[in-house]
Design brief:
This protein has about 650 residues and is α+β, with helices and mostly antiparallel strands. The protein contains seven helices and 35 strands. Strands 3, 4, 6, 14, 17, 20, 21 and 22 form an eight-stranded mixed beta sheet that branches. A six-stranded mixed beta sheet has the order 1-12-8-9-10-11. Helix 5 packs antiparallel against helix 6 and helix 6 runs antiparallel to helix 7.
Length: about 650
């Protein structure tokens, strides 16, 4: 029979915990949501909130509690201390398929009660071991007990039907060990408890932030056959919290406030240094905290809201859209909020699509051409936000004259701002492009401390040949790209973005047009003027942008460089002649050495000797001249450096 480990029950006091339902949900565009719970707590009752373990950091960072009539005495929540650290405090270990004898052996000295059939052995644990298998005997788990009845008793655990530890402390330790293992297996949910000592019922409100899916917006832009265009907005919200939102106050906020993660839930341990004190008594080290200024009292007040209720129906020919929009729109600092006036219900693991906008909007149909790799522009619209509200970014489906016209993407834009959207290709307009580049024109020359700064400009002309095939007038917006160092010469753009000029062209029915865009690109180049040759400087001297003073300075530098070049050329020529004479002298000396060993060649030897003497004199003269040229070159270079250092224009 297998042994059973029986743990004595310990008294556990569990306070009554109420659950506060979700009342308000505010969703943002940056991955968090604001949740508010409220309800009534009875006398002596606390509250319990359950969260995902991964959400606890945000909860602890943002949690606020309002209990107007009662007293909140504290907050408790399930710890996230690592299991290994929790188990390290216990005087025993339970691992894997560890034999029972190993657990009992770790409790040496503890009292134990072993039931074997009709009798019970009680006493103190001396030790436990596993007896190896013998012939005709299997491996056995044995425990040695110092029995209360006297003597030591060896008990085979296989014969034990029940094991008890009479010591409540050991019983509690084993229970806590098991509870820690169980808690580690349920990592998903963590509970937070709000404690209170109040003896009467009261209303409690709890608010916090949680990671939440971004709410999404989509629009319908309707161009009716007659009348003003209408923009209809729908919000898509996802409930991933694991509980129902039943008749909650729902608000959607457009904007992206700063939000980040802080490690508040996980315990943080620091490695401390060991410190020892001398034998004589000394005061321990003290770190004095900085003085903290008293907190200023803050006032709590309401924020006025601009309320607007919308209930409109739009008929769009073949497409009929009838929605009831009931939202309040209001600025919230730099953010914008849409708050639904009627309660909203979204079940857990479900999503909802809610209308939040239906407004007439100022819109102008036109064409946009921005992709130069294509021949056709796009059907588009220029939207002016005349709704008085911030329009969140999202996809737009366009309907024109009651039929589907295409789709576009729109960025978030504020009231009275403008946006261009394009939703289809206009095959009735063809555009061909001819680019042309002009020569570089020097606009400015500057010299300072030897650095020559050259600012030049290149004019580029791009011609757009536009043909309107359709027998109706059109308005075309051409978006022409430009670089950071360029400016438009002609024509004047109607608008300019960070990277494009926009030019508007009125297209007559079945007609051809040309748009010539002239841009001037500015370039700046900085070089050491000492690296220029006289010929290169001569090119700059012909530039009409030079002032008379600048021209004189460059002419002096160019003249000095020519003098240096002349001196350097003369010295080089002298050195070449010296090298040639040195080679002649070496050959002559070799000839003399050969003739000295031949009889009757004394006259020739004398002639070679006279040549050597004449060439040595010439070499002395050349070396002196070369040295003079080098000195002249050095002097000229010093003078050039002075000119360059002092020249400025």
């Amino acid at each position: 029979m297998q042994a059973r480990l029986i743990l004595l029950p310990a008294l556990t006091v569990v306070s009554i915990a109420a659950e506060l339902p979700v009342r308000t949900v505010v969703l943002y565009k940056h991955g968090v949501g604001f949740f508010e719970r409220s309800g009534e707590l009875r006398s002596g009752e606390g509250a319990r909130l359950d969260f995902k373990a991964t959400d606890m950091n945000d909860v602890l960072k943002s949690l606020t509690i309002v209990d107007k009539s009662g007293k909140v005495t504290g907050l408790r929540y399930d710890s996230s201390e690592p299991l290994e650290r929790k188990l390290a405090d216990f005087p025993f270990k339970l691992t894997g398929n560890m034999p029972l004898a190993h657990l009992v052996d770790q409790l040496k000295g503890a009292r134990i009660a072993l039931r074997l059939g009709q009798r019970t052995v009680e006493g103190a644990i001396v030790g436990a071991r596993i007896a190896p298998a013998e012939p005709n005997k299997p491996e056995r788990e044995l425990v040695t007990v110092l029995a209360d009845a006297g003597g030591m008793t060896i008990v085979d655990l296989a014969a034990v039907t029940e094991i008890r530890f009479p010591d409540p402390a050991i019983d509690r330790q084993i229970k806590d060990y098991m509870a820690a293992l169980t808690s580690a297996r349920s990592k998903e949910k963590k509970s937070l408890y709000i404690d209170s000592t109040d003896d009467r019922a009261r209303a409690v409100s709890v608010a916090y932030m949680l990671p939440s899916p971004v709410w999404k917006s989509s629009y319908r832009l309707v161009f009716p056959a007659t009348g003003d265009p209408v923009l209809e907005g729908w919000a898509i919200v996802d409930n991933t919290t694991g509980e129902d939102w039943t008749k909650v106050n729902l608000a959607l906020v457009s904007g992206r406030p700063v939000s980040f993660l802080s490690r508040l839930y996980e315990p943080v341990f620091r490695q401390r240094q060991y410190a020892s004190l001398p034998e004589e008594e000394m005061p321990p080290p003290v770190v004095h905290m900085a003085r903290t200024a008293p907190a200023a009292a803050g006032a709590v007040g309401g924020v006025p809201r601009t309320m607007e209720t919308i209930d409109m129906a739009v008929m769009t020919g073949k497409t009929e859209s009838t929605v009831a929009v009931n939202t309040a729109a209001a600025e919230r600092g730099e953010l914008f909020e849409y708050r639904f006036n009627a309660p909203v219900t979204v079940r857990k693991s479900e999503s909802a699509m809610l209308p939040f906008l239906q407004e007439k909007i100022t819109a102008r149909k036109l064409l946009i051409y921005s992709d130069t790799s294509r021949r056709h522009p796009m059907n588009a619209a220029e939207l002016t936000n005349s709704t008085g509200k911030t329009l969140d970014g999202g996809p737009i489906t366009a309907f024109d004259g009651g039929v589907y016209a295409g789709e576009a993407l729109m960025e978030t834009f504020k009231a009275n701002d403008k946006r261009l959207i394009s939703y289809a290709t206009d095959l009735g307009t063809v555009i061909n492009i001819t680019p042309e580049s002009g020569d570089s024109i020097v606009r400015e020359l500057k010299l300072n401390r030897g650095l020559l700064t050259l600012r030049s400009a290149i004019r580029e002309t791009t011609t757009y040949a536009i043909r309107n095939i359709d027998a109706k007038p059109k308005t075309l917006i051409v978006e022409h790209p430009f670089g950071p160092e360029s400016k438009v010469i002609s024509p004047k753009p109607v608008e300019t973005t960070n990277a494009r000029h926009r030019f508007e062209v009125k297209l007559a029915p079945s007609a051809e047009h040309q748009l010539a865009v002239v841009l001037e690109t500015h370039q700046e180049e900085i070089q050491q003027i000492s690296s220029f040759t006289p010929d290169q400087l001569e090119i700059y001297l012909r530039n009409p942008v030079l002032t008379p003073a600048a021209r004189r300075a460059l002419e002096q530098i160019a003249a000095k460089k020519r003098d240096i070049a002349t001196a350097a050329g003369n010295a080089k020529q002298m050195l070449a002649e010296i090298e040639e004479l040195d080679r002649d002298q070496q050959r002559t000396r070799q000839n003399i050495g050969s003739l000295n060993n031949v009889a009757g060649q004394q006259d020739q030897v004398q002639r070679y000797a006279r040549q050597l003497a004449e060439r040595d004199a010439r070499l002395d003269t050349l070396r002196a001249q070369a040295a003079q040229f080098r000195r002249t070159q050095s002097t000229l270079e010093s003078e050039l450096n002075g000119l360059i250092e002092s020249a400025a224009f």
